[in-house]
Hints:
Elements: H1 2-43, E1 46-47, E2 55-56, H2 60-66, H3 69-100, H4 107-115, H5 122-137, H6 148-176, H7 180-188, H8 193-204, H9 206-222, H10 225-230, E3 236-239, E4 242-245, H11 250-258, H12 265-296
Antiparallel strand pairs: 1-2, 3-4
Amino acid sequence: MKAKTSVNLVQRPIRRCAPLFILPTFLAFVIGFVWPFLQGIYLSFCKFNTPKDAVWDGISNYTKAFTDPGFRNAFWNTAGFAVVSIILINVAAFLIAYALTQKLRGANLFRTVFFMPNLIGGVVLGYIWSLIFDGILKNYGTYLTANGTYGFWGLVILVAWQQIGYMMIIYIAGIQAIPQDMLEAAKIDGATGRQTLFQVVIPNVMPAITTCTFLTLTNSFKMFDQNLALTGGLPSVIQDGAKVNITELLALNIYSTYNINKNYHGVAQAKAVIFFLLVAVLAIAQQAATRRKEVEQ
Length: 297
């Protein structure tokens, strides 16, 4: 009883002073995120050059966004890129993590080497890999931005090389958290390596799979700097009377739309709102689907 009273005496001033510590962070969050977000939604319905001269324009910006061939092309590019990247990055990262947790000599060195690409900025990586790809393709009489297929797979290779090491660390943490007695029980029961992997390891690593899938999904949809530096959206074609960049993803398309001229600032903002809603819905759906697997396990 005395111990409980002592705890209450300690916690009471903490609870009383909590708002004083929370308030600065809350104000920073409102000023840095909530207010710009709400202003961005308002501007998506306006025609403007700067936020101060915004004029209400209704839903015309959204109409232009949905009828823009470049935006539709960027959406399908991003969707395909996300699917390929999620599968490739997560499968490769998990297999590497599983191998490096099997008492492999020099495992720590390999972990460091695989993680290092994640420390390099996206723009730098884009320019480095563009030199590498163009150097290889030059032998075949072509270059990276001459073909949409080359550009697409170039982006996949770049992002996989950059992110596999980061996801590997998360999978290693998940694998190492598996109770050893569970693995020993599987071994005693005569489970093969494959059975242990699929019946014990993967079910117990579902929280890590949830996290890595979420990160790769959102990173794939939000990718901008690598796309800008590696291909810049090129090559370009004329489609329905409009210029369409074949390897352009959604984030780069929004950026390019904003830079066309001042009359397209509202359209770019409308695209940004659509982009936010798309990523939010997909991320929530993915979290719900994979967390359900965690509960079942």
